[in-house]
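Minutes, project check-in
Item: structure for the 145-residue chain
Input as provided by the requester:
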Amino acid sequence: MQVGVIGASRCDERIYEIAMRVGELLAERGCVVVNGGLGGVMEASAKGAKLKGGLTVGIIPSGSKEDANPYIDVVVATNMGHARNVIIAHSCDALIAIGGEYGTISEMAIALKLGKKVVAIEPLVVLPGVKVVETPEEAVEEVLR
């Protein structure tokens, strides 16, 4: 299963730790972690997945693979800016949003429009159809249910 972990490219330490734990749990369950390949929540979830031997895919907004964070195994350099959010939504079986800003909201909306499950921890806004949970464990259980 390919699970997107989405959120802001800059976050505080608490959100970083939540995202890292989500990445760990997904890898332990055999999921591929897909994200936008940059910093913040994306880096943390990839780092967590790598700590548990998981596979990570970063779909980055630029055209240079070197822009991806060091925890990404497979870099997809789109040179599409924010339009890459559509690729992330289409490439995942489900999404876990952690915090986030406008880009995260767009990814959630696209995934919902595609009929995919979207789970969120501390979302900026709650879109209809998003399941809000409190912990990384709840988020992973919900997407795998």
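Outcome recorded: The helical segments are 13-28, 40-51, 84-91, 102-113, 136-144.
No further action items on this chain.
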